[in-house]
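<given_protein>
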Amino acid sequence: MTGRLCYTKLTNNRKGAVYVNILVIDGMGGGIGKSIIERLKAELKDVSIIAVGTNSIATSAMLKAGADFGATGENAVLYNAARADYIIGVVGIALANSMHGEISPKMSEAVSASSAHKILLPVDKCNVTVAGAAGASMQTCIGEVVNKLRSSG
């Protein structure tokens, strides 16, 4: 079963195929979320990617990258964080008022409280530095996301 993801918490799509639900959250212009989704779609099978943007520009960019579903805003984060198997985004999605105020306290709480496994990318723009992550390119970090998903299960 090379390239397939097998997990204990699975849901079925309309066609009956088994998918892992991955929630990608991004804001601003959606560039990092777009890169994450392009890489996940290229390298992993049997995943359902829900793109949630803090604004419509970010959502649109992630949908163009191949996300299966898209939604925008605070309620979309609250709803989907509770249903995801994995949540992926920059570290700021777990920090209230980060990303120039795009992440509300309710959004960061929903991400933090979710039972989903969180894979967060280090980005200094959120006014947080993750020790040990300095110097890694964003593409290297996204590669680590893919490798983490492959090794899970």
About this structure: Confidence is low (pLDDT under 50) at residues 1-14. The radius of gyration is 14 Å.
